UniProtKB/TrEMBL annotation:
Species name: Streptococcus chenjunshii
HAMAP family for the chain: Formyl_trans
Source organism superkingdom: Bacteria
Function: Attaches a formyl group to the free amino group of methionyl-tRNA(fMet). The formyl group appears to play a dual role in the initiator identity of N-formylmethionyl-tRNA by promoting its recognition by IF2 and preventing the misappropriation of this tRNA by the elongation apparatus.
Catalyzed reaction equations: L-methionyl-tRNA(fMet) + (6R)-10-formyltetrahydrofolate = N-formyl-L-methionyl-tRNA(fMet) + (6S)-5,6,7,8-tetrahydrofolate + H(+)
Protein name: Methionyl-tRNA formyltransferase
Enzyme Commission number(s): 2.1.2.9
Gene3D superfamilies (alphabetical): Formyl transferase, C-terminal domain, Formyl transferase, N-terminal domain
CDD domains for this protein: FMT_core_Met-tRNA-FMT_N, Met_tRNA_FMT_C
Domain Formyl transferase N-terminal: 3-180
Gene Ontology, cellular component aspect: cytosol
Binding annotation for (6S)-5,6,7,8-tetrahydrofolate: S110, L111, L112, P113
Length: 310
């Protein structure tokens, strides 16, 4: 069996790890994932999806805050692994670790060289792409710049958001990895260099990027909301209070950007720079997520046509 170290963090990574474990072809010597983090308003400490899966299979787990220069790095290098498989790990791999194994490959959730970086699924949606995919590539020191082993694509629909695409791409990446890794290891697949002149980047979403700019066209607002759901979630302000927008739909109508142009018992329509969007699911500050009907029956009942979202 091929002895590997697996590195990954979210559900996307866990799907790929499960595929490797189920294949019976790979001996996972250890799993490396991000440290447990405090999440949510209650600051509940939560383990990554990869750690939770590793625990069920009783795999050795390493969680360095930073792999470079850590004691965990030395321990990993002593395991005698043939190679490394990574998927949404969230850290650079030290050069000495890459040099210590026969191969190191990454499952990246974009069609490289497009959307190198930590948030490729988010940006594919935000930018209104019609398709996305996964790329299996060799690991190098530069971010997502290694030679490409294989890729596969799928269409993006208006019903997709970050959550649905993460799930679709996780299964696509799992299947592509299991299909192509044996051929790559046997030498029958020759990796192809990326065209760096066509590279684009997808850095982690900043807090500033989460805020809705109502001057933009309605399609851009729609794409921003679904490109940030279920995390980190886009937001706007009304009457000085922040409101997260979990789901919106495109709507007819025109008005000044951010202006309420329609309100009834079931609908709240906001004008954008061109066109409008109808709010579907929102979350006022300090409140749970709610359907727009509940918002309008509660704290949103004071909103009137002509009022503005900031």
């Amino acid at each position: 069996m091929v002895k590997i170290i697996f590195m990954g963090t979210p559900d996307f990574s866990a799907t790929i790890l499960q595929g490797l474990l189920d294949s019976g072809t790979y001996d996972v010597l250890a799993v490396v994932t991000q440290p447990d983090r405090a999440v949510g308003r209650q600051k509940t400490v939560q383990s990554s999806a990869v750690k939770q899966l590793a625990l069920t299979h009783r795999l050795p787990i390493f969680q360095p805050e930073k792999l470079t220069g850590s004691k965990e790095l030395s321990e990993l290098m002593e395991l005698g692994a043939d190679g490394i498989v990574t998927a949404a790990f969230g850290q650079f791999l030290p050069s000495q670790l890459l040099a210590a194994v026969d191969f190191a490959v990454n499952v990246h959730a974009s069609l490289l060289p497009k959307y190198r970086g930590g948030a490729p699924i988010h940006y594919a949606l935000i930018n209104g792409e019609k398709e996305t995919g996964v790329t299996i590539m060799e690991m190098v020191k530069e971010m997502d710049a290694g030679d490409m082993i294989a890729s596969a694509s799928l269409p993006i629909s208006d019903e997709d958001n970050v959550g649905t695409l993460f799930e679709k791409l996780a299964f696509l990446g799992r299947d592509l990895l299991l299909e192509t890794l044996p051929a790559y290891l046997s030498g029958s697949i020759k990796p192809q260099p990326q065209d760096s002149s066509k590279a684009t980047f997808s850095p982690n979403i900043s807090p500033e990027a989460e805020r809705i700019d109502w001057q933009r066209p309605a399609r851009d607002v729609f794409n921003q909301v679904r490109g940030m759901y279920p995390w980190p979630v886009a937001h706007t302000f009304f009457a000085g209070k922040r409101i997260k927008l979990h789901e919106v739909s495109l709507a007819a109508g025109q008005g000044q950007p951010g202006q309420i142009i329609e309100k009834n018992r079931k609908n709240l329509v906001i004008a954008a720079g061109q066109g409008a969007v109808s709010l579907k699911t929102v979350q006022p500050a300090g409140k749970p997520k709610m359907a727009i009907v509940d918002f309008l029956n509660g704290i949103g009942r004071t909103a009137e046509v002509g009022d503005f979202f900031e």
